[in-house]
C-alpha cells in the first residue's frame, strides 16, 4: 500500500476506535423491555450490547452489533449492523452495515453505508450510498453521493451528486471542504483520485484523470486517459489518451495513446496517432463520398503532420506578397502524364504529374513524406501558375488585339481619306473636261 494511503487509513481507524471507546462510557439505561431473540414490538429487532438502547417510538428498526443504533429513539426504518453502526442516529431510513458505518450520523436520512467506517463522519447528508471500507469516510453534509470501493470518495466533505466506483476512486474529491466538487463521475480504480475542487468531470477507466486537480467539465474514457489534466472542457477517449493537458481547454483526443502536441494547448482535435503502432492508419469516413456540399465550401488540405485545414487566401494571413512574374514559367517544363495507381484494382486512369519530375523543375511544387521522399504535387500552386501564364498570354493577346484595332482604325481613316481624295480628283477631272469642251466649240464656229 502507498505509505500516504496507509497513514490516512491508520488515522481513520484511530478515529473510529476513539469514537467507539467513547461510546463505552455512555449511559446504558434501556427504554424498551428486552424480549426473546431480540424481537420487539413495531417490527424492531435488536441484538448486541446496548443495540437500540434508547428506542421509544421508532418503528421497523434493526440494530445488530455493539451499540448499533444506540441513540435512536424516534427514528424509523433504520438498519445498523456492526459495532457502533448508526450509533448516534435518530433520523429515518438509513442502512449501515459494518463496524462504525454511519457512526456519527444524527439527522441525515436515506443513506446506505456498507463497509468498515463507511460514511463514518456523515451527520447531515441525505441520499448517499457508500459501499466499501472508508467509502465517503469524511462526508459530513454532502447529499446524493454514491461511492463504491475502498476509500471511494473518502475525503468528500460537503459536495453532492458525485459517483465514484472503484478502489480510491475520487478519493480526494472535496477534501478542501469548499463543496464545489460536485457532479463528478469516477469509474475505475484511482479514477479522479487527486481531484479536489473540480466539478462535472467524468472519468471512466483505471487511473482515468488520476492525477491533476481542480479542472472541471472534463471527460476521460480509458485506462489512465486524461491523466494529469488540470484544464477544463477537455475530452480524451482511448487508453492512455490525452495525458498532461496542464491548463489546456476545449481539446478533443480520440484513439489509443493520442497525446497533446504541447501542454496548455487550446481547442485542438487530435484523432489517431501514427507513431503509436507499427503500421500507419488509413482513414475511412462515411457520409462524405457522393454527398453534396453546402454553401461556400472550401477544399480541405492536410499538412505533413496530419493537421487538417483549408487554404486561407485573405491578405491578413500573408506577407512578402509580390507578383509571380516569370516564376510561373517553370510549369512550361512540366510533363503531364496518364497513369494508374498501384493499389487500384479497377485500373482507373488518372491524369497528372510525377512528383520526382516536378521536383526537378521546381522543388516548391511538391510535398515530401516524413522520410523526406517526394510524395505529392501541389496542384493548387500549379493551378495558380497556370493562371499567371494564362493571364500573361491573355495580356499579350489583348495587346495584339488593341494594336490590330488601332491599325484597323488607321486603315479605315486612310481609306476614308483616299476616298475623299478620289472624289476631289473626280471633281477636278470633270471640271477639266468642261473647260476643254468650251474652246473646242468656239473653234468649230
What does this structure look like?
It is a single chain. Strand 20 and strand 21 form a beta hairpin. The chain is 21% helix and 14% strand. The longest helix is centred in the last third of the chain and has 66 residues, at 379-444. The termini are far apart. The radius of gyration is 45 Å and the shape is rod-shaped. Mean pLDDT is 89; it is low at 1-7 and 23-31. The chain is of the alpha/beta class and 445 residues long. The chain has a domain at 1-110.
Topology record:
Elements: H1 3-24, E1 39-40, E2 44-47, E3 62-64, E4 79-81, E5 95-97, E6 112-114, E7 129-131, E8 146-148, E9 163-165, E10 185-187, E11 202-204, E12 219-221, E13 235-237, E14 252-254, E15 269-271, E16 300-302, E17 308-310, E18 337-339, E19 350-352, H2 355-361, E20 366-368, E21 374-377, H3 379-444
Gross morphology is: rod-shaped
pLDDT < 50 stretches:
1-7, 23-31
User: Could you state the order of secondary-structure elements as H and E?
Assistant: HEEEEEEEEEEEEEEEEEEEHEEH
Helix percentage: 10-25%
Number of H- or I-type helical stretches: 3
Quick one: how many beta strands?
21
Mean pLDDT: 89
Strand arrangement across the biggest beta sheet: 1-2-3-4-5-6-7-8-9-10-11-12-13-14-15
Integer-rounded radius of gyration: 45 Å
Question: What proportion of the residues form beta strands (DSSP E)?
Answer: 5-15%
Secondary structure category: alpha/beta
Biggest sheet overview: 15 strands, mixed
* Through-space gap between termini: 157 Å
Quickly describe the structure.
This protein has helices at 3-24, 355-361, 379-444, and strands at 39-40, 44-47, 62-64, 79-81, 95-97, 112-114, 129-131, 146-148, 163-165, 185-187, 202-204, 219-221, 235-237, 252-254, 269-271, 300-302, 308-310, 337-339, 350-352, 366-368, 374-377. The protein is of the alpha/beta class.
Amino acid at each position: 500500500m502507498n505509505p500516504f494511503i496507509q497513514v490516512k487509513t491508520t488515522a481513520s481507524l484511530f478515529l473510529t476506535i476513539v469514537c467507539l471507546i467513547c461510546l463505552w462510557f455512555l449511559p446504558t439505561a434501556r427504554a424498551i423491555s428486552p424480549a426473546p431473540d431480540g424481537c420487539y414490538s413495531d417490527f424492531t429487532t435488536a441484538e448486541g450490547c446496548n443495540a437500540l438502547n434508547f428506542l421509544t417510538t421508532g418503528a421497523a428498526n434493526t440494530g445488530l452489533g455493539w451499540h448499533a443504533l444506540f441513540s435512536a429513539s424516534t427514528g424509523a426504518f433504520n438498519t445498523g449492523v456492526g459495532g457502533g453502526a448508526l450509533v448516534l442516529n435518530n433520523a429515518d431510513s438509513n442502512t449501515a452495515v459494518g463496524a462504525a458505518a454511519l457512526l456519527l450520523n444524527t439527522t441525515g436520512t436515506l443513506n446506505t453505508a456498507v463497509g468498515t467506517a463507511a460514511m463514518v463522519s456523515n451527520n447531515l447528508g441525505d441520499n448517499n450510498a457508500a459501499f466499501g471500507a472508508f467509502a465517503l469516510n469524511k462526508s459530513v453534509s454532502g447529499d446524493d453521493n454514491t461511492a463504491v470501493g475502498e476509500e471511494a470518495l473518502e475525503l468528500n466533505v460537503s459536495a453532492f451528486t458525485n459517483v465514484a466506483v472503484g478502489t480510491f476512486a475520487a478519493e480526494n474529491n472535496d477534501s478542501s471542504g469548499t463543496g464545489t466538487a460536485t457532479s463528478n463521475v469516477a469509474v475505475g480504480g484511482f479514477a479522479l483520485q487527486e481531484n479536489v475542487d473540480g466539478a462535472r468531470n467524468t472519468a471512466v477507466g483505471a487511473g482515468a484523470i488520476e492525477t491533476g486537480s481542480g479542472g472541471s467539465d472534463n471527460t476521460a474514457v480509458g485506462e489512465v486517459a486524461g491523466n494529469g489534466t488540470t484544464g477544463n472542457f477537455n475530452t480524451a477517449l482511448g487508453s492512455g489518451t490525452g495525458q498532461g493537458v496542464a491548463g489546456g481547454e476545449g481539446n478533443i483526443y480520440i484513439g489509443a495513446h493520442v497525446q497533446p502536441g504541447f501542454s496548455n494547448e487550446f481547442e485542438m482535435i487530435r484523432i489517431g496517432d501514427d507513431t503509436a503502432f507499427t503500421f500507419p492508419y488509413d482513414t475511412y469516413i462515411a457520409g462524405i463520398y457522393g454527398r453534396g456540399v453546402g454553401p461556400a465550401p472550401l477544399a480541405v488540405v492536410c499538412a505533413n503532420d496530419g493537421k487538417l485545414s483549408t487554404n486561407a487566401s485573405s491578405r491578413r494571413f500573408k506577407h512578402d506578397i509580390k507578383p509571380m512574374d516569370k516564376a510561373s514559367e517553370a510549369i512550361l517544363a512540366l510533363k503531364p502524364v496518364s497513369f494508374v495507381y498501384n493499389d487500384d484494382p479497377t485500373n482507373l486512369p488518372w491524369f497528372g504529374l510525377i512528383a520526382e519530375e516536378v521536383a526537378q523543375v521546381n522543388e516548391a511544387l511538391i510535398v515530401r513524406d516524413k522520410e523526406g521522399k517526394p510524395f505529392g504535387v501541389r496542384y493548387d500552386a500549379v493551378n495558380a501558375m497556370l493562371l499567371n501564364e494564362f493571364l500573361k498570354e491573355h495580356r499579350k493577346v489583348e495587346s495584339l488585339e488593341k494594336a490590330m484595332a488601332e491599325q484597323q482604325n488607321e486603315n479605315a481613316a486612310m481609306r476614308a481619306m483616299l476616298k475623299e481624295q478620289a472624289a476631289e480628283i473626280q471633281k477636278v477631272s470633270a471640271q477639266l473636261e468642261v473647260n476643254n469642251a468650251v474652246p473646242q466649240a468656239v473653234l468649230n464656229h
